[in-house]
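Section 5: illustrative case.
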């Protein structure tokens, strides 16, 4: 897989930003079939940093129900995989440069 297929998008939330500042840990939404070694290689090639640690989490799909005038609408939100990347000391990833 190409690095652009492995890394879908960075996760930018208050919790993720706090971890970036405190622990040098970045969160990314990644392809479900990718493993830790592929994720590490993709981050190092795309951002030019040294990765020290990769942790992954698979969020399961969830059922959602909504009540409308037409009645109940049932649906399903897809599951996804997140990767928490820790970079080497003194290095950082600039996620806001392309905005």
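Designed sequence:
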């Amino acid at each position: 897989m190409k690095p652009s297929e492995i890394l879908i998008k960075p996760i930018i939330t208050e919790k993720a930003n706090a971890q970036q500042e405190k622990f040098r840990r970045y969160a990314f939404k990644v392809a479900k079939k990718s493993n830790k070694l592929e994720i590490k290689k993709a981050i190092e090639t795309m951002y030019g940093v040294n990765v020290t640690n990769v942790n992954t989490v698979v969020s399961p799909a969830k059922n959602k129900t909504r009540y409308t005038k037409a009645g109940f609408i049932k649906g399903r939100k897809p599951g996804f995989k997140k990767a928490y990347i820790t970079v080497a000391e003194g290095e950082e990833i600039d996620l806001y440069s392309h905005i």
